[in-house]
Amino acid sequence: MSEALNPETPEAVLDDAADQADEEKPIKQRKNSLYPGVSDELAESMKSGWADTALHGLEPIPQAAHTAARRAALSARFPGERLVVPAGNLKTRSNDTEYPFRASVEYAYLTGNLTEDGVLVLEPAADGHRATIYLLPRSDRENGEFWLSGQGELWVGRRHSLSEAEQLYGIPASDVRELTGKLREATGPVRVVRGYDAGVESALTDKVTAERDAELRVFLSEARLVKDEFETGELQKAVDSTVRGFEDVVRVLDRAEATSERYIEGTFFLRARVEGNDIGYGSICAAGPHACTLHWVRNDGPVRSGELLLLDAGVETHTLYTADVTRTLPINGTYTEIQKKIYDAVYEAQEAGIAAVRPGAKYRDFHDASQRVLAEKIVEWGLVEGPVERVLELGLQRRWTLHGTGHMLGLDVHDCATARTETYVDGTLEPGMCLTVEPGLYFQADDLTVPEEYRGIGVRIEDDILVTEDGNRNLSAGLPRRSDEVEAWMAALKG
Length: 495
Known about the structure:
This protein is an alpha+beta fold. It folds into 2 domains: 59-224, Creatine Amidinohydrolase, Chain A, domain 1 (3-Layer(aba) Sandwich), CATH 3.40.350.10; 229-494, Creatine Amidinohydrolase, CATH 3.90.230.10. The protein contains 18 helices and 17 strands. It has helices spanning 10-23, 40-45, 64-77, 105-111, 145-148, 153-156, 162-169, 179-185, 198-203, 210-223, 229-251, 253-258, 261-275, 337-355, 365-380, 388-394, 398-401, 483-494, and strands spanning 82-86, 92-94, 97-98, 119-125, 128-135, 173-175, 190-192, 278-279, 284-287, 308-313, 315-316, 325-330, 434-437, 440-443, 457-460, 463-468, 471-474. A 5-stranded mixed β-sheet has the order 6-5-4-1-7. It has a 3-stranded antiparallel β-sheet with strand order 9-10-12, covered by helices on one side. A hairpin with a 2-residue loop joins strand 4 and strand 5. Helix 11 packs antiparallel against helix 13 and helix 14 (337-355) packs antiparallel against helix 15. Keywords: Aminopeptidase, Hydrolase, Manganese, Metal-binding, Protease.
């Protein structure tokens, strides 16, 4: 990585540059910079000789009509109130390097813009609200920001101008550096989505309440329960790329055996970065007994022939919608007898769960259907004493099933998380909802209550299911699920 001239904020750089002539104060730069300063001649040279790169005639982003409808629904819910939705800021990884930025889901949902420091503000108006998107404009070439600031254009790339942003997002755009002053002067009721932008929250500290802000966040979470046409299309894109990522992994399992789970992680990540924005969450590449650790993301263990690989991974699209798919694969291509017995039980439970997903059904129905099958299996295998109703009532099956059977899916892998319980877990399924169905059985390596042959085997099968008008559609049907089909699929890919 090249050595930046200045670790300070852009404002500090620009102030120093402007005052240098009058106060003979050097530009602040990193302690061990190789350049002691900027000569007047160099500063003047950097101001000119640049071609005009303004973009004209830009088309709106594909989801612009959908984001406008979402803002209209938000406006109708909170009439007469100022609504503030930040994208968030860069987060430091170490010293002067940052994590890759990911906009808040609320901001992305309402604008389609994905850049740091952005803020959507809905100002009350006679006919509802007037929306403005506050963004960082292009780096200033006159004052040197574009090459002196660590976040300047020559360091991190070109930003859209405010006029370009207006064309893309269909929202009037203003300079975000002027926003905090405006917010401090604001009057009337205000709500803000908290947790993303400390500067915005500080400017509103005496104008907001935790209760009002929580209501705003709950509304935006519940609004995402039912996906529109654009969203379901993006989820299908995410799943399709994920299917190809799983195929990539199967093709290189022999190389993973020679290295570690990290080879699997890196292989899937390549597909995610080539076809999407990123992975939607930390990939779980759990071989052998690691499959019994629900969120095994260390991915540093051995990959051994004869054991299982539990791969739980999802590609995130460029619009931030993510897939979430799991398959449990025999590393050598063939399940052993005990592996197949456990796998087929989980498959049967998933089949029951998927069959329960339909409009008008209770959200809990697919979970209950899957858990009943798994409870029946562990009673049949003599792992716990029946009857099955007793096992379910006491939750005894949870020693080996551990987690719930699914969750909503969308911009977050666990989407709509702040929705009210009565609209989510205790709610009713509607067309357009997208959820995972992912039962599992996990027999820990040190579990003395089960026969030794079970120990260290973990199986989960997960698919992304869209509720339709007449039932459901398995978005991830491109990946086989039945044990014999999995073996045939792996053989064809390796062959």
